[in-house]
């Protein structure tokens, strides 16, 4: 039993195949090699919207009994979290996406599309390395179209900084303020990570994002396993991971869930908590109106987050000209739907993407793999934009039995590799009231206001 990670109310351990056999009577044999045990302090419910959209990535899950003997075994496996193990109330077996994806060929798997079997890729690998990592992309940003609401005759508007900068960068100010008990006097630019780089970027942008996270991982990147102790992301593995993330389709799905609370793009994005909370307090729900920025429509894709701008902050603050060009509309959807989409978005912003790689150190590919066509996720021809990225991957979905078990991708260039992508942390957030998110939002904005005063006295807007 090996510690994998922990969240606010749960802790996860990787199980060996021998340990997993204790529950063999409950599981198909081909799942035993890739199981993890999750203990939690409360019963965790998954967000149905996110699960539907990410169905190919979410993996296996089965609740099991939890007794004192199992609690003690987990506590002994990772004494640092012994107290949390002893206090756990629920246990479940889940997919271990950090497991070596080569084992898919050894334990069976059903391919849902035609293609060369994994055996052809891995039988000729006398030497290989393995790497498993967890990536938390966090929340993507686009300039909002809905900039305010009218509630019971009172107009409420978004804070201006939200019209130009991502929540992730603002959250860093709050974290540094909490840690140092003071307001930071500078904000790093162009050398920091922005979720837009990963979730909305092209191949080179994704490479940049992974490079930033490898240098400053924080809580957004963790190496779960590596063949060599201390091994991290190098240039080669970054190229492979960036190609895998693009080809798997996970990034666009997460971006849509975060922006729209849906698996696909919609006409109207998720309403910001600053406005949704005001709406929730309306005495007359039928009189609520949205305040829409007339100049924002159609500009979402071209707008860049200011946290990556080379302009001075004082100039960035002036990029919101035209906000006065607004009009009022009746909400195009009901309050309940807006709340549902908001909570789906919140879950999607907290999702972790797990990538496991097995990379051949030297391999001669069979003739059948020497010049394969390129495939998109829908089977159509796909153009590779960057020569640095893997230029000829075969994309295949693998399932074990009837249970979705992550997306597995075989890569053939620049090195042969087999990779698997899965997602975790899909827990619904319904137990947290809107007021909790509203108060956190106010705290984040207060940290920004303090930062303006300390670092840029010329700000008076």
What does this structure look like?
The protein is an alpha+beta fold. It has a domain at 2-137 and 204-253 and 350-424. Helices cover 31% and strands 20% of the residues. It contains 15 helices and 16 strands. The strands form three sheets. The chain has a seven-stranded antiparallel sheet. Strands 1-2-3-5-4 form a five-stranded antiparallel sheet. A hairpin with a 3-residue loop joins strand 1 (2-6) and strand 2 (10-14). Helix 11 (250-260) runs antiparallel to helix 14 (335-349). The termini are far apart. 39% of the residues are buried. Mean pLDDT is 80; it is low at 109-122 and 363-403. Its EC number is 2.7.1.158. This is Inositol-pentakisphosphate 2-kinase. It catalyses: 1D-myo-inositol 1,3,4,5,6-pentakisphosphate + ATP = 1D-myo-inositol hexakisphosphate + ADP + H(+).
Spans of at least 5 consecutive residues whose pLDDT stays below 50 are 109-122, 363-403
How would you characterize the largest beta sheet?
A: 7 strands, antiparallel
Class derived from helix and strand content: alpha+beta
Number of helices: 15
Radius of gyration over C-alpha positions, nearest whole angstrom:
24 Å
- The rounded distance between the terminal residues' Cα atoms is 55 Å
Helix proportion? 25-40%
- Beta strands, count: 16
Brief rundown of the structure:
By secondary structure, the chain is an alpha+beta fold.
Detail the topology: elements first, then pairings:
Layout: E1 2-6, E2 10-14, H1 17-20, E3 35-40, H2 48-53, E4 61-64, H3 68-77, H4 82-87, E5 90-95, H5 103-107, E6 110-111, H6 118-122, E7 128-135, E8 146-151, E9 154-157, H7 167-180, H8 195-199, H9 203-215, E10 221-226, H10 235-248, H11 250-260, H12 273-280, E11 289-293, H13 313-316, E12 326-329, H14 335-349, E13 352-360, E14 394-400, E15 403-411, E16 417-424, H15 434-455
Antiparallel strand pairs: 1-2, 2-3, 3-5, 4-5, 6-14, 7-10, 7-13, 8-9, 8-11, 11-12, 13-16, 14-15, 15-16
């Amino acid at each position: 039993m090996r510690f994998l990670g922990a969240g606010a109310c749960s802790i996860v351990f990787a199980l060996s195949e021998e340990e997993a056999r204790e529950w063999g009577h409950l599981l198909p044999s081909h799942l035993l090699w890739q199981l993890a045990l999750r203990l939690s302090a409360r019963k965790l419910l998954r967000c149905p919207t996110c699960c539907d959209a990410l169905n190919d990535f979410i993996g296996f899950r089965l609740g099991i009994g939890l007794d004192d003997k199992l609690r003690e075994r987990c506590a002994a496996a990772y004494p640092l979290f012994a107290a949390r193990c002893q206090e756990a109330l629920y246990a479940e077996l889940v997919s271990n996406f950090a497991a070596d994806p080569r084992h898919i060929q050894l334990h069976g798997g059903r391919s849902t599309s035609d293609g060369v079997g994994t055996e052809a890729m891995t039988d000729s690998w006398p030497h290989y390395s393995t790497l498993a990592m967890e990536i938390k992309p966090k929340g993507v940003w686009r300039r909002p179209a809905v900039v305010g609401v009218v509630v019971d005759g009172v107009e409420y508007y978004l804070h201006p900084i939200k019209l130009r900068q991502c929540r992730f960068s603002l959250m860093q100010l709050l974290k540094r303020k909490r840690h140092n008990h003071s307001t930071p006097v500078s904000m790093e630019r162009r050398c920091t990570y922005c979720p837009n780089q990963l979730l909305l970027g092209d191949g080179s942008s994704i490479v940049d994002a992974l490079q930033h996270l490898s240098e400053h991982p924080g809580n957004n990147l963790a190496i779960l396993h590596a063949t060599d102790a201390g091994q991290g992301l190098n240039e080669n593995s970054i190229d492979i991971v960036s190609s895998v993330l693009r080809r798997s389709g996970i990034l666009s799905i997460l971006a849509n869930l975060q922006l729209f609370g849906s698996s696909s793009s919609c006409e109207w994005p998720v309403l910001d908590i600053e406005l949704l909370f005001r709406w929730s307090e309306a005495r007359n729900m039928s009189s609520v109106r949205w305040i829409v920025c007339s100049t924002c429509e159609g500009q979402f894709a071209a707008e860049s987050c200011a946290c990556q701008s080379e302009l001075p902050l004082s100039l960035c603050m002036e990029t919101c000209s035209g906000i006065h060009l607004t009009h009022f509309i009746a909400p195009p959807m009901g309050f309940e739907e807006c709340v549902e989409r908001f909570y789906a978005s919140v879950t999607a912003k907290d999702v972790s993407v797990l990538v496991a790689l097995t990379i051949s150190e030297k391999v001669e590919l069979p003739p059948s793999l020497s010049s394969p066509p390129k495939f998109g996720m829908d089977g159509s021809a796909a153009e590779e934009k960057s020569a640095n990225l893997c230029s000829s991957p075969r994309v295949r979905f693998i399932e074990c039995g009837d249970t979705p078990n992550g997306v597995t991708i075989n890569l053939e260039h620049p090195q042969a590799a087999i990779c698997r992508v899965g997602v975790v942390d899909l827990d619904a957030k319904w137990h947290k009231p809107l007021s909790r998110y509203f108060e956190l939002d106010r705290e984040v904005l207060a940290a920004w206001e303090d930062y303006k005063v300390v670092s840029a006295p010329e700000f008076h807007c």
